[in-house]
Amino acid sequence: MGDKRWEVLHSEVLVNSPWLRLRSEACRMPGGQILDPFFVAEKSDWVNVVALTPAEELVLVRQYRHGLGRMVLEVPGGCIDPQDTSPEDAARRELLEETGCVAREWTHTGIYSPNPNDQTNLVYAFLACGVQQVAGQNLDTTEELEVVRIPLMKLDEVLSGGEFLQAMHISALFFALRVLEGKPLGGVL
Q1: Which residues, 6 or more positions from 64, have their beta carbon under 8 angstroms from its beta carbon?
Q2: Structure pTM?
Q3: What CATH superfamily is the domain 46-180?
Q4: Count of alpha carbons within 13 Å of 75, Cβ hemisphere only?
Q5: Who's near 89: CB < 8 A, 6+ residues apart?
Q6: Helix, strand or coil for residue 179?
Q7: What is the rounded CA–CA span in Å between residue 92 and residue 76?
Q8: Where are the domains of the chain?
Q9: What is the pLDDT of residues 67-125, one digit of tens each?
Q10: Angle at 181 between CA 178 and CA 183, to 5 degrees
Q11: Which residue of 116, 131, 178, 188 shows the fewest CB atoms closer than 10 Å?
């Protein structure tokens, strides 16, 4: 198929905040068509952790998500911070901060893009097994989450209940379930 990259004719930063850097670009497609404006969101890479206790309970978090305007159920996770030495380091930190839990065994299960059309970041998914509570939560000032434990065998029921809506977290569950079933890892770099 050949190289189908777009040529960037002009780029301007519209928003530059700790949460988002938004660019407006004029781009020429390989066929000559000009797209102007085309918006690109630069965000930090993320980690998502599917945390499983020895009793085969998933450790999840419930929190309000303003974009959707409702409470949702999610796996623990968040941004890879500059002080994190690796995605796994960030995953360990996020699990401990959000749930007060640590894990005995870590598996990097997959890597994927939230939206390759107009976002620059990647998501690193992990399965954490042997999870146990060792502390209380240590939340950021913008976080208010409730820790929820559900039996792994009830995951289908939870997913069809309408409260688990975050596509990146559902992807992390997909990759973790593949590993638990003995299937190959998903798109690990």
Answers
A1: 70, 71, 72, 144
A2: 0.91
A3: Nucleoside Triphosphate Pyrophosphohydrolase (3.90.79.10)
A4: 32
A5: none
A6: helix
A7: 10
A8: 7-42, 46-180
A9: 999 999 999 999 999 999 999 999 999 999 999 999 999 999 999 999 999 999 999 99
A10: 55
A11: 116
